[in-house]
Design brief:
This protein is an alpha/beta fold. Helices cover 34% and strands 20% of the residues. It has 5 domains: 107 residues, GIY-YIG endonuclease, CATH 3.40.1440.60; 55 residues; 183 residues, 3-Layer(aba) Sandwich (Rossmann fold); 185 residues, 3-Layer(aba) Sandwich (Rossmann fold); 81 residues, Alpha-Beta Plaits, CATH 3.30.70. The structure holds adenosine-5'-diphosphate (ADP) and zinc ion (2 copies). One zinc ion binds next to loops.
Length: 711
């Protein structure tokens, strides 16, 4: 049994005796057990017969389970297995694995009643009635008390709707999916047929759906979900951001009325509890949500779709530091289902697997309805500077904004800026200092005014002039969204401009409100981070401006080129989704860089061909696995010392390549100094074993298997 607690002393399964009176209680059940002088709850993850060798004479010493909680197992066998998988493959504590697989309200609150409301027939008249009806329609399975409290409807209003039949008491009947209103394109038809074929085969399979932005991938997901429902099985659809769930939710809800459950951590506890149990009871068959929705308790899971599979948000930052793609594959291995990875810009890992023939590969090469891809132009900021323009907006971008606003269309201005790592860029020739060994940008460390490779700790003084062209215009480089917003407001005083980044969207629901206001054209322009480039469908956006592609390119991360390519392509994907063709203006000091050039041509293959060569040469994923070991301390030395020891331990295994320790690119967070160590191996089991060895010998170090964030 595993405790529902995160504590070092409790980080292993405990043995308890299951008395004959509780013989029906087994794996997956929540139970209350004695612990020390008190009691605690946990979940049974396995059992063994008392007459097995190592427990032959122990049963008398074992304490007995006190009582089960609930009337049936909380976790289905495949989720029990998944808890053990998280703990083993991502090297976390048992309690963390359990808490990840089962959301807090489900662990803490009793299941909701089975008698609940759902909406039927057409909307009733009258504002209160309509409000109540809509509330229930969007939350099938809601309790009567909650629906009334949330909408201010009286008991009389509720009973009127019940007797009129516009509301009914559940469980809801299974409604058939509503057929699509689109006539699928030939490419969509082919993809749908291929996926249906995979579903028919019944074995676990993974397929990459590589489709340019606006090629109708979502329509293919909907068809695949309909096909899996027809076979009596369930589907999980993952989106990279909570912000994208409302838009995707609306499309799935209208296709699968009453059968969709939405999972995400920003929902209120009661709602999360209800949605979880609707799935657990088999009332909902399609689950939609960000990363954590992969743990939805589907008993008949047959399909997982990961939309925009290249997004790094599928990697969890906290323990267990899993990647949703790996968890999905693990889950489907045991249930024999289909994993669909959709993207216009697949991750190198997935693209490589598809090109090697290890997973399926379907393509949607064109936008639907003959809409052209946006036209991308690249502005060389070096030339702009030469001509004496020191403003944030090049002549070309400014003119394009003028035109777009004059036509009454909308503009997105994007700035990729994650963390605060700064590099040095030559404003004359575009040179950025890189580490020759690791092929990542060097990061400028203010404190000692040096350039540092944060993979191997190579250091150099900041040169006075550019090593490539001799220019003295070598500068550290950084602008923020606020500065762009300010400059845009000065340049276009009549335009209605809003800002969207993590800081401005901290409050619950602020995302949805801003994005809706923008959809309703209450703003002319939105200034923000890459958040804006993700998946939104705004038909009136005809211009996207990227303020500085170099910010993405100069991140000290071996995926910097991939991120840049993604950002630019996704940005182009936001432009011209409606009737009017779109255009994109990319400003950069590095117009020749292959990621910029390939994105401008909107061609993934040339980018892939070049990038995969670098990855192979240096053993980075997909040609190897990494372990990031991080440490922090009151001084640089205190942070570094345990890593020196870890490095010497790790170096005893000749299959591991150990780089560092080096300071983290974001060297100080509050008063803490941060250092890290990067470990590489050709195969994953080596990396996992190394992580477990380190976790045992130096438990205070932070370990990330297959890291995505090096800041
Ligand atoms: P993607 O997910 O590849 O970016 P979407 O599935 O969002 O693309 O489709 C883009 C737009 O095209 C959406 O507005 C969608 O409703 C529409 N669409 C999709 N398939 C078709 C089709 N076969 N015929 C007409 N419109 C379509
Ligand atoms: Zn230069
Ligand atoms: Zn290096």
């Amino acid at each position: 049994m595993v405790f529902d607690r995160v504590a070092a002393g409790l980080d292993h399964p405990f043995d308890y005796w299951v008395p004959p009176s509780l013989a029906h209680v087994g794996p997956g059940w929540r139970v209350r057990v004695p612990l020390g002088a008190s009691t605690a709850t946990g979940v049974i993850v396995g059992w063994r017969a008392a007459d097995e060798e190592d427990t032959r004479d122990r049963p008398v010493q074992l304490k007995s389970i006190l009582a089960p909680i609930g009337e049936e197992p909380l976790l289905l066998p495949d989720l029990v297995r998944l808890v053990a998988y998280l703990r083993e493959q991502w090297c976390c504590w048992w309690g963390q694995a359990l808490r990840t697989a089962v959301p807090a309200p489900v662990r803490q609150l009793p299941p909701p009643p089975r008698a609940h409301l759902y909406a039927a027939a057409d909307s009733p008249r009258g504002p209160v009635r309509q409000r109540l009806w809509e509330y229930v329609r969007d939350r099938p399975g809601v309790a009567e008390a909650e629906a009334r409290a949330a909408t201010g409807a009286s008991a009389a209003v509720l009973s009127a709707l019940l007797s009129a039949g516009t509301l009914r008491r559940g469980p809801a009947p299974r409604l058939a999916p509503v057929p699509t209103r689109h006539h699928l394109t030939a490419a969509q038809e082919q993809a749908v047929a291929a996926l249906a074929g995979c579903l028919g085969a019944g074995a676990a399979q993974t397929v990459l759906l590589e489709g340019v932005t606006g090629s109708g991938k979502t329509e293919v997901y909907l068809a695949a979900a309909a096909a899996v429902l027809e076979r009596g099985r369930q589907a999980i659809v993952l989106v990279p951001e909570i912000a994208l769930t409302p838009q995707m939710g609306a499309r799935f809800r209208s296709r699968f009325p009453g059968r969709l459950a939405v999972f995400h951590s920003a929902m209120a506890d009661g709602e999360r509890l209800r949605e979880w149990h609707r799935v657990r009871r088999g009332e909902a068959d399609v689950v939609l949500g960000p990363r954590s929705a992969i743990f939805a308790p589907c008993e008949r899971l047959g399909l997982v779709v990961i939309d925009e599979e290249h997004e790094s948000t599928y990697k969890q930052d906290e323990h267990p530091r899993y990647h949703a793609r790996d968890v999905a594959e693990e889950r489907l291995r045991s249930t024999g289902g289909l994993l669909v990875l959709g993207s216009a810009t697949p991750s190198l890992e997935t693209a490589h697997q598809a090109r090697q023939g290890r997973i399926g590969w379907l393509r949607l090469p064109e936008r639907v309805a003959g809409r052209p891809l946006a036209c991308v132009s690249v502005v060389d900021l070096r030339a702009e500077l030469e001509r004496g323009n020191r403003e944030m907006f090049s002549k070309q971008l400014a003119a394009a904004v003028d035109d777009t606003l004059a036509e009454g269309q909308q503009v997105l201005l994007l700035l990729n800026r994650r963390g605060y790592a700064k590099s040095v860029v030559c404003r004359t020739c575009g040179y950025t200092a890189r580490c020759a060994e690791c092929s990542v940008s060097l990061t400028w460390h203010r404190e000692d005014d040096r350039l540092v490779c944060h993979y191997c700790d190579f250091r150099m003084a900041v040169p006075d002039s550019c090593p490539a062209c001799g220019s003295a215009r070598l500068r550290s480089f950084g602008v923020g969204t606020e500065q762009v917003l300010e400059a845009a407001r000065i340049r276009w005083p009549a335009a209605r401009i809003a800002r969207a980044d993590r800081d401005s969207l901290r409050r619950r629901g602020s995302h949805e409100r801003l994005f809706q206001a923008f959809s309703a054209r209450q703003y002319d322009m939105l200034v923000g981070t890459q958040l804006l480039a993700k998946g939104m469908d705004w038909p009136h956006v005809t211009l996207v401006g990227v303020i500085a592609a170099d910010l993405a390119l100069s991140l000290p991360d071996f995926r910097a080129a991939e991120r840049t390519y993604d950002l630019l392509t996704q940005a182009a994907g936001r432009a011209g989704r409606g009737e009017h063709p779109g255009r994109v203006v990319v400003q950069t000091y590095n117009p020749e860089h292959y990621s910029v050039a390939a994105a401008a041509a909107q061609a993934f293959q040339p980018f892939y061909d070049e990038e995969v060569g670098y990855r192979e040469e240096l053993g980075y994923p997909p040609f190897g696995h990494l372990l990031l070991v991080e440490s922090s301390g009151a001084s640089g030395e205190a942070a570094r010392a345990p890593l020196e020891q870890a490095a010497s331990e790790l170096r005893q295994d000749p299959a591991l390549t150990v780089r560092g320790p080096s300071p983290a690119p974001v060297e100080k967070v509050r008063a803490h100094h941060r250092c890290h160590l990067l470990v590489r191996a050709a195969d994953r089991p080596r990396i996992v074993a190394a992580a477990h060895r380190l976790a045992a010998s130096q438990p205070h170090l932070s370990l990330t298997i297959d890291p995505y964030n090096f800041l």
